[in-house]
Specification:
This protein is α/β, with parallel strands linked by helices. It contains eleven helices and 19 strands. The structure holds zinc ion (2 copies).
């Protein structure tokens, strides 16, 4: 079938990307789903730093690549084996996937069989990590072609498109009362930031959580921490506009890193959501005795710091790396949906603009500049399946 999607042609193009336009909207051929795959009509997709990391080259991936991994849509066809499959890894049955089901796409499918898949979400699946790195689906290869040439998938999803074929383990069903833009943001920002809180920080009443870096993931961590009774939340960012947003969302205090250092802030849990080694060093410096530093950001592979291990030992501190919020998507997304339904997780506040597919180059500039949180592309189906709109 023919689809329309946002294809990254060149990594590390000159900024502004609105001018150099490394992302092009193209007509592509999408194969029918394989036996363990599903075809999804994309309803909404949002722009995340992991898209930006491919555009700016800090995560090297094959190109051409159809970007987008924070997305939601409706299942419109099931592979021949999907009905009878279980998810493995304690993720519950493969049930719940039917034609018409709204699904959240997630960016790391778990095979359910490798050693890492037996860690209850702690370690990223080895198979999923490998196929993600290769720009393939979990069953191998690409389902996307342009003039006969394969186009790589982004993180097993490629959601900046009118339709997507993905592994059945890359989707989690949600009820129809969850609007598609909310469902999209659940799949990456909330799963990553919120997951770091519920699966790793597990904050106790009377404790303090500091979140460093108030992008979509950091703010998702912040609102999840705020949903815990009796937890004091400190928001830290260099941009005044983000500190303002954090206070509006209920942060108890908001400050710059310099202010945090000056005031001698030491938090029981510090969540680093920037993805820069120097910021990780800062996060370590404001972690309390006996406290925990959790890093969810993804720095470039050659970005390093030096620190003295003595402080970790002498102060009895813990460092945790958390990929995708150490989450099992089918276990954790329903938890976040419940919190959202109860009015305790204002995910809609993370969405700061609606754009069309053709606005993606400029959207990458805005994300890099920190002027937007989540920018959502909404799709409508006019029967051709190839329209999108800015709403
Ligand atoms: Zn993401
Ligand atoms: Zn696995």
């Amino acid at each position: 079938m023919q689809i329309r999607g946002a294809v990254l042609r060149e990594i590390g193009a000159e900024r502004p990307w609105a001018a150099s336009r490394p992302i092009e909207i193209a007509e592509l051929t999408l194969d029918q789903p394989g036996p363990t795959e599903v075809l999804v009509q994309i309803e909404a997709a949002s722009v995340c730093h992991s898209d930006l990391s491919v555009v700016n080259g800090s995560r090297v991936r094959p190109v051409p690549m159809l970007l987008g991994h924070e997305a939601a849509g409706r299942v419109i066809a099931l592979g021949s084996d999907v009905g009878g499959l279980s998810r493995g890894d304690g993720e519950g049955g493969g049930g719940g996937l039917e034609v018409g089901t709204r699904v959240v796409m997630t960016f790391l499918p778990r095979c359910g069989e490798c050693a890492s898949c037996h860690t209850a979400g702690k370690a990223p699946c080895e198979v999923g990590s490998r196929t993600n790195g290769a720009g393939e689906l979990m069953a191998g290869g690409s389902r996307l072609r342009e003039h006969g040439t394969p186009v790589a998938h982004h993180l097993g999803v490629s959601g900046f498109a009118t339709r997507a074929v993905v592994d059945y383990r890359s989707v989690v069903p949600v009820d129809d009362d969850v609007p598609a833009p909310i469902a999209a943001v659940l799949g990456c920002a909330v799963l990553t930031g919120g997951g770091a809180v519920v699966n790793e920080a597990k904050p106790r009443p009377g404790s303090t959580v500091a979140v460093v870096g108030l992008g979509g993931v950091g703010l998702a961590a912040m609102i999840t921490a705020l949903a815990h009774d009796g937890v004091r939340v400190i928001a830290i960012d260099t941009l005044a506009s983000k500190l303002e947003t954090a206070l509006e969302l209920g942060a108890h205090e908001a400050m710059t890193p310099e202010q945090a250092t000056e005031r001698g802030v030491r938090a029981d849990t510090v969540i680093e959501a920037v993805g820069r080694a120097s910021v990780f060093g800062f996060a370590l410096s404001i972690t309390a005795l006996g406290g925990t530093t959790i890093t969810v950001g993804l720095p470039a592979p050659d970005d390093t710091i030096e620190f003295a291990p003595l402080g970790i030992v002498a102060e009895g501190r813990t460092i945790i790396g958390s990929y995708m919020g150490s989450a099992l998507p089918s276990r954790d997304i329903p938890k976040f949906v419940e919190m959202w339904r109860a009015g305790r997780l204002p995910i809609e506040r993370l969405i700061t603009s609606h754009i069309g597919l053709d606005g993606l180059n400029a959207a990458m500039d805005d994300l890099a500049d920190g002027t937007q949180l989540r920018q959502v592309i909404s799709f409508i189906d006019d029967g051709s399946g190839v329209l999108d709109r800015a709403s």
